[in-house]
Prior knowledge:
The protein contains four helices and nine strands. The protein is α/β, with parallel strands linked by helices and 154 residues long. It has a single domain (9-152), classed as L-arginine/glycine Amidinotransferase, Chain A (5-stranded Propeller), CATH 3.75.10. The strands form three sheets. Strands 1-2-3 form a three-stranded mixed beta sheet, with helices on one face. It has a three-stranded mixed beta sheet with strand order 4-5-6. A three-stranded mixed beta sheet has the order 7-8-9, covered by helices on one side. Strand 2, helix 1 and strand 3 (45-50) form a beta-alpha-beta unit.
Amino acid sequence: MTEPGTLDGGDVLQLGKTLYVGMTDRTNEAGIKQLAAFVSSNGYRITTIPVKGCLHLKSAVSLACEETLLVNRSWVDTKPFDTMEFIDIDPAESFAANALLVGGELVYPANYPKTLQRLEEKGIPVRAVDVSELQKAEGGVTCCSLIFEKDYLI
């Protein structure tokens, strides 16, 4: 990334060969153009998503399971994700859309019980974790995690 481009990993949601990139205070148009130039040779395409009311795209929408997104519709328009199914967060839990799918299990903040119940009712395997300290700075399980495939660990 070169100036004036900025790109935050919390603004990038990969669904197949499409990278949905949130336009936020941390990701700008120049950064999105640089990302597009970098990934296009590998068959990826970019869809820019306006985000309002939160820090990152993945604070507003994240992958809950293979064909389902967890979403806060007040922060992001779902039209660009028209091929997906949705689970709406409970309106009393604004930050509840930030979840991390790892190995078929959803890592999810324990302090959103109403949305957690919605996930469980859909049959999604959930591992609830206490991330209350991270959430004080709008940190979530997506932006505060680094995931490695086991074979790559030394």
